Amino acid sequence: MTRLPEPLVLSCASGEGSVLSHGAHALSWAPAGVQPVLFVSALTRTEVGSAVRGGVPVCFPWFGPGRSGDMEPAHGFARITEWQLVDTGEDAQGDAFAQFLLTPQDVSGDLRNLFPREFEARLRMSVGRRLRLELTVTNTGAETFEMEEALHSYLRVGDCRRVTVSGFDGVSYHDKVAGQDRTQNGDLTLTGETDAVFHHRGEVRITDPELGRVLVVSKEGSDSTIVWNPWEEKAAGLADLADDEWRDMLCVEAGNVLGSAVRLGPGESHTLAQVVEVQELPAAGS
Questions:
Q1: Residue 197, CB half-sphere, CA atoms under 13 Å: how many?
Q2: Rounded mean pLDDT of 251-275?
């Protein structure tokens, strides 16, 4: 199979990252002097047409198996399709950026037939002291359509069993593992396989005592926050994830999925944005 092209490196005084044109897939990011923030499996596939296990896959135009429950490939065709690089440089804030474009003409025929709509999708990635991703979808056709979308961030953590996720207290969510609707009480800690879609618009803070930092995830244009970790048993069945790597990652994703799918009329656009920042963990007793 054809190997993926080399990623585009984005670098500025305050940080560095990289992005693949395959899937407009953010592959890495770290502020200057900080450990890498995104997780990528050592066993990820590196062939054209395959999904990368890690970084920030773009899920579009459906999430998981779609609302029908039978859509393939999982998370849509955007993450396994070559996007067009349309711009790169440094913005007014001094951050390095790249912008990619996807249209139906870029999608192979069999996959395009699964979503027979006219659209433009643009992904803009900027790196510096923070990572900002913006996915803008425009309906360029004459018919209204609905879509799901997510920025499927794999965050690197010291040990997912020790992190604390705050920002969901009192928020309702769908527990996809149990197949039940629930309400979160207090901070979230992981004790097993987690696949939850929170009806949530706010900020999330991931406190990581192992790496001594807090990851702050904020977003715009998003009614869903997805939290995912496969845990030991399910991870063992994933060929592109090493045995113990599930401990090193936590997915916290901005999206619009399930009942929060986006409806776009002709000529309408929607932008989903996600920002990740790193803060030092306060010293004990401070």
A1: 23
A2: 98
